[in-house]
What we know:
This protein is of the alpha/beta class.
Amino acid sequence: xxxxxxxxxxxxxxxxxxxxxxxxxxxxxxxxxxxxxxxxxxxxxxxxxxxxxxxxxxxxxxxxxxxxxxxxxxxxxxxxxxxxxxxxxxxxxxxxxxxxxxxxxxxxxxxxxxxxxxxxxxxxxxxxxxxxxxxxxxxxxxxxxxxxxxxxxxxxxxxxxxxxxxxxxxxxxxxxxxxxxxxxxxxxxxxxxxxxxxxxxxxxxxxxxxxxxxxxxxxxxxxxxxxxxx
Length: 230
């Protein structure tokens, strides 16, 4: 099975093609450029450089959030276009679960953390045991202090923070952050996660692929707060 996956949920944007559990090609940028400028050229270059015809892709995979509201929408829009153009379907992957797959091969509790601002993180916990990743908690937006209380129930296995909130959480809570090379979002991890949990019943048509935000956009939160003060 060949999967083309993308992740645009944060500053880092990445594209990958996997084939039967092997990374065939991958590309990423963490330069802070607008994903709407970089994503489609990255996909085109990746397919050309790896001599992978778009027609040979069996399905697509996309991180659908949580994450940057704009970034997630850009990634989903690109996958929708690819689905419509090829007649193929897509798999939706939690950004946080994709991050946990960065630590494949280790024996740790992966605490995926993305900076949600306001002293909050988007987070979820996963048990990583060799080549297996098992979800322990659902995706949530938590105060960093509350996350510390949650981590205290896993004393028998090392906890490692992974994601763009890793350094902030490591400084606040004392658990280590993943090495920089495996700390940030990876489309290859998104593809491997999608393949490992593949189920035809989970395949989505373009119109069924939707973002997962966990909380309202800032503008809507501010509007509701303003209205509540009236």
